[in-house]
Specification:
By secondary structure, the protein is mainly beta. It contains two helices and 38 strands. The chain is globular and about 60 Å long.
Length: 546
């Protein structure tokens, strides 16, 4: 009965709030990957405040049972039920008040998954139409019954066997009656695509090629293995009826053997969800030679009567665009140490003074290919109008070489590099921080140094709090105005997932996915040696004020 009443309240609230206050709809839920289409990761709940946050206590813990690469997902919460995916695409539904399991779905994956570059990665699921949707590690789209977890349909989208990057590590985007899926691709010897699937029937409707069919952009056969996968979740903007994705880097990393601007890699693209037709694009990194994906979240905000799209690239710059057509409004520096380019023109986006890798010549690249921030999203608060985002200053040295993409094993990136060394910035040391910034200008309101980088998705709340978790496993509640740490808790392992908030029976919960994994767990200790002491793990930990 409580769930039925809550559903009525949420529906009524959403009808009015969506039109008047985007980002505040369905306050008791976390209905999609970033909670709302504008990627704010902001909860309108305010029961947990700066005054009582110190009373947060563990309410329940749910363990998925497999700690391989931790938990990389952001949970979805609807009507008091928490849904999430763990290693190898296992989906769980648990009671949001008690953590008691409701159902569990374990797919039968192709045995070749163990040979892939990303053998256990699962960043989330999507829910709509009474169904739970999942992209799998063996290249399928799957729909489950939301109440029972029973499989309703499955669709093989990619030619998985023998195909590099033909798997899904992120959830699909729900765009009305359509689903869109972006495969891994990026660093791998494949040709990136985005797929449009009928959400009701599981029928493939369209496919968009992220490698433009243009000999000027991709001379010869270079596009055949050009990468460009949309490997992180996109977002559906209902105000423009557009699906917005960031695309991955061009492959291989070395650019000498693939001339041209290599569209649509390193770009933000806007698609018609019904047809897959391209509406507009903004290429941030033409002819990428540094593995600087543009796959991160598209933050949508309105200010002064204008609608903006704010987008961080791995290369350490933030692009501010008009969300309707991609027109550039500003570019600002996020990273402190940048060696791949002298600057980027804030109005044209021109890369000024490119410093590219050359075959056989070592080069120190800042930021490292891991980026000025990991893929885990920041959060935006409409109360403070600040963007809360993790950052790190790391570099790497590598020497370009040549490889034959047709001879690469499935478990090897198409990077074409050797003599790789993770190094600190020239004359300094590797550092990590947590910033509060104006998203349009980059102006810093406050910045907190972390001993280890934070790889979690950030949460901002109406209680003027910001929640973040670092690689050591310490989750902190910061004062949204000052950055002061008001509460902390050791979860036992670092985090790769997204922190969320929801309410059941009038009580607000904060849920933290704990469990270190992914490439960050492998490469991180080379910059931050103390990370080597971090335990593996996998658990959802729910907190509430007692």
């Amino acid at each position: 009965m409580r769930h039925a009443i809550a559903a009525v309240f949420i529906t009524a609230f959403a009808t009015s709030a969506f039109a008047e206050s985007p980002g505040l709809e369905q306050p008791n839920d976390w209905p999609q990957y970033h909670r709302t289409y504008n990627a704010w990761r902001y909860s309108p709940l305010e029961q947990v405040t700066r005054e009582n946050v110190k009373r947060l206590k563990v309410a329940w813990i749910h363990q998925p049972g497999d700690i391989t690469h931790g938990i990389q997902a952001t949970p979805i919460v609807l009507d008091g039920i928490v849904y999430y995916v763990s290693a190898f695409n296992v989906v769980h539904a648990v009671d949001g008040a008690t953590g008691a399991p409701i159902w569990k779905y374990k797919p039968r994956l192709d045995s070749a998954v163990s040979q892939a570059v990303f053998p256990a990665w699962s960043r989330g699921i999507a829910i709509a139409h009474g169904r739970v949707y999942l992209g799998t590690l063996d290249g399928r789209a799957i729909a489950l019954d939301q109440k029972s977890g029973q499989e309703l349909w499955t669709l093989q989208l990619t030619a998985f066997k023998g195909c590099h990057g033909c798997n899904f590590t992120s959830p699909p985007v729900v765009a009305g009656d359509m689903l869109t899926f972006g495969p891994t691709a990026g660093d791998l010897a494949t040709r990136g695509q985005i797929y449009g699937v009928d959400a009701h029937t599981g029928t493939l409707v369209w496919a968009f090629d992220t490698i433009k069919d243009d000999p000027k952009s991709w001379p010869g056969e270079t596009g055949k293995y050009g990468g460009g996968g949309a490997w992180l979740p996109g977002t559906y903007d209902p105000t423009t009826d557009s699906v917005i994705y960031g695309t991955g880097n061009a492959a291989p990393w070395v650019g000498e053997d693939r001339e041209g601007d290599n569209l649509y890699t390193g770009s933000v693209i806007s698609l018609d969800p019904k047809s897959g037709a391209l509406k507009w694009y903004r290429q941030e990194i033409p002819h990428d030679a540094w593995d600087y994906d543009s796959a991160y979240e598209a933050l949508l905000i309105s200010r002064g009567g204008r609608d903006y799209l704010v987008h961080l690239n791995k290369g350490g710059f933030v692009w501010v665009m008009d969300k309707h057509d991609g027109r550039l409004e500003n570019v600002w520096r996020f990273a402190k140490h940048i060696t791949w380019v002298d600057d980027i023109h804030p109005k044209t986006g021109e890369l000024i003074g490119r410093h590219e890798h050359r075959i056989g010549e070592p080069f120190v690249q800042c930021p490292a290919t891991g980026g000025a921030r990991q893929w885990n999203a920041g959060a935006y608060s409409p109360k403070t109008q600040l963007w809360y985002v993790n950052g790190m200053e790391i570099c790497m040295s590598w020497t370009p070489t040549r490889v034959d993409p047709a001879k690469l094993p499935l478990a090897q990136n198409y990077s074409s590099i050797k003599d790789v060394k993770r190094v600190p910035p020239p004359g300094g040391k590797a550092t990590a921080r947590f910033d509060a910034r104006d998203p349009l200008t980059g102006a810093v309101k406050w910045s907190i140094d972390y001993a280890m980088p934070a790889y979690a998705g950030v949460l901002a709340t109406a209680g003027n709090l910001v929640f973040n978790q670092d690689a050591e496993g310490i989750v902190r509640a910061h004062d949204a105005e000052t950055g002061a740490v008001l509460w902390s808790f050791r979860t036992g392992s670092g985090s790769r997932g997204g922190i969320v908030s929801y309410a059941v029976d009038g009580k607000q919960y904060i849920v933290v996915p704990s469990g270190m994994g992914g490439y960050a767990a492998i490469s991180g200790p080379q910059w931050f040696p103390e990370m080597s002491k971090v335990n593996g793990g996998a658990a959802l930990i729910a907190f509430t004020v007692e």
